[in-house]
Amino acid sequence: MIKLVLMNSDEYQDYISSAIKGYAEEKVLSGNWSQEESISKAEEEYARLLPKGEKTENNFLYSIVKDDKSVGVIWLARLSDEKGYIYDINLFEKYRGYGYGKEAMKEIEKVGQELGMKKIGLHVFGHNKVARGLYDKLGYQTTNVLMEKEI
User: Fold this and answer.
1) Is pLDDT of 145 > 80?
2) Is residue 145 part of a domain?
3) Who wins on pLDDT, 24 or 135?
4) Residue 93 CB partners (closer than 8 Å, separation 6+)
5) Residue 60 belongs to some domain of the structure
6) Is the pLDDT of residue 37 over 90?
7) Single pTM value for the model
8) Is 6 contained in some domain?
9) Separation CA 50–CA 59 (nearest Å)
10) Range of the domain at 32
């Protein structure tokens, strides 16, 4: 069984550096950004969303913990009184495939309910078929699909 533990400032610093790099890579993979601009654009995005880091109001950044080891991270934001948004869920490479992501999603839904949320949204890159499959199994419904073709 996993548990969610709010990040401290050291954990946040580790998280933010890897998150920026990972987000930049995803945006390049999906064709949204060029390699050259990706890191600076990702830094801008995180600075906008988390101006006070892990202490940014209405943002809840957790370490996903299994047997006293951090196995990943999950970030829930309150968008309104009734709506939350999962900006990030990331299991560290060696902990993938054990069901921890599914457990973390169920736990973050409980957190959302405790905060009074009635809905939680998220974004998944189209090329991330594993995550899309997980979200489908957990009952998340597709609300928008953006498609693109090189011509």
Assistant:
1) no
2) no
3) 24
4) none
5) yes
6) yes
7) 0.87
8) yes
9) 8
10) 2-137
Share above pLDDT 70 across residues of the chain, in percent, rounded to a whole number: 95
Residue 70 tokens, joined: 């951090």
* Spatial separation of the C-alpha atoms in residues 51 and 101, rounded to whole Å: 27
Q: How far apart are CA 73 and CA 104, in angstroms?
A: 9
15 assigned to some structural domain? yes
Domain count along the chain: 1
CATH code for the domain in which residue 72 is found: 3.40.630.30
Q: pLDDT, tens digit, for every residue of 115-125? A: 999 999 998 87
Joined together, the tokens standing for residue 77 give 């934001």
**Helix H or strand E segment including 5:** strand 2-6
Query: Can you spell out the DSSP letters for 68-123?
Result: TEEEEEEEEEE-SSSEEEEEEEEE-GGGTTSSHHHHHHHHHHHHHHHTT-SEEEE-
